[in-house]
Amino acid sequence: MKRSRKLLQSLLCLLLTGILLIGCQNGKKSDEPELLLGFSQIGSESAWRIGNTQDIEDQAENYGVSLMIENANQKQENQIAAIRRFIAYKVDVIAFSPIVEDGWDNVLTEAKEAGIPVVLVDRDISTEKEGLTTCLIGADFYQEGVMAAEYLIRKADSLGLDSVNIVEITGTENSTPMRQRQQGFADTIASDSRMHILERIDGDFLKSRGAECMRSLLDKHGDDIDVVYSHNDEMTLGAIPEIEKAGYKPGKDIIIISIDGGQEAIDVLKEGKINCVVECTPKLGKELMETAKKLKNGEEVDEVIHPTEVIFSDEQDLEKIAPRGY
Ligand code: GYE
Questions:
Q1: What is the Cα 261 distance to its own chain's centre?
Q2: Which of 35, 58, 101, 178 is within CB 3.0–4.6 Å of 126 for a Cys-Cys bond?
Q3: Are the C-beta atoms of residues 67 and 35 closer than 8 Å to each other?
Q4: In this predicted model, what pLDDT tens digit does every residue of 147-197 receive, in sequence order?
Q5: From CA 305, how far away is CA 316, in angstroms rounded?
Q6: 11 within some domain
Q7: What b/e readout covers 252-267, taking b as 16+ CB neighbours within 10 angstroms?
Q8: Is any ligand 1 atom within 6 A of the Cβ of residue 46?
Q9: Mean pLDDT of all residues in 68-87
Q10: pLDDT the model gives residue 6
Q11: Which domain, by its residues, includes 93?
Q12: Would you state the pLDDT for residue 13?
């Protein structure tokens, strides 16, 4: 009788330890409430975007966050519908990367009325209303434009150029990176009288559009083009074969400046067909999970979180660049 009671006690003890161990996995305490995060991603238009989605999924797992993720396939109406589903599902926090800046007031007011905090990831919105979002986690796109222009000014100095004709292939119209990459670049070249923008053309951040835009720019301006400033790697990678087909050497006859810093663009930079790539990191997942946890616990969060970014260019020893992971 005594022996069987002891056995029962030991079994109960083992069971209790097991439950405690499972409860503490991922650094979570067993009494910590689950955090359900709804995230609406723009689409899969670039290596950057695919890397960003992957990072958010990986970090959700690391932080023990349950993630509902929806891909909007490049359509704002799909993002609005996803946010409405997150509200109906009563997620703890909503995060999204707005494809464009306008048109979010109604759906974000619905989220606010439901008491669900909203985090902007990567891109910003434009609104007159107060308090629709809590935090923006994303790059300083204006500064990226500045870094691209500063590189160009140094390059023009080193080549001794006295006139520089630029074509600019821009990202999705009315998106934050498009507006700010254009503005930062324009403001920085404004004081340099050698710099002239021949044309700006909308490439929508897509490789196929980058190729089309480049064909049209070459048809119109041909020999006059000294520089291609492209708002992302995908469009740059679409433009380069078109430049070659037209009989020019990218990186030599035409200076090529790109933004993102994905592995494929870095490899082409090493080949000498791109001159400069401004980094834009897609790794925003860690900050997102930490912010979502704070919001769930009712803690204060920073209004803007910018990651630190660098540039990669033909001014450096390119062999030292570590694998990019996207
Ligand atoms: O540069 C581009 C993309 O919003 C920073 O979106 C992002 C941009 C990125 O698809 O490749």
A1: 11
A2: 101
A3: no
A4: 999 999 999 999 999 999 999 999 999 999 999 999 999 999 999 999 999
A5: 28
A6: no
A7: eebbbbbbbbbeebbe
A8: yes
A9: 98
A10: 53
A11: 36-139+282-308
A12: 40
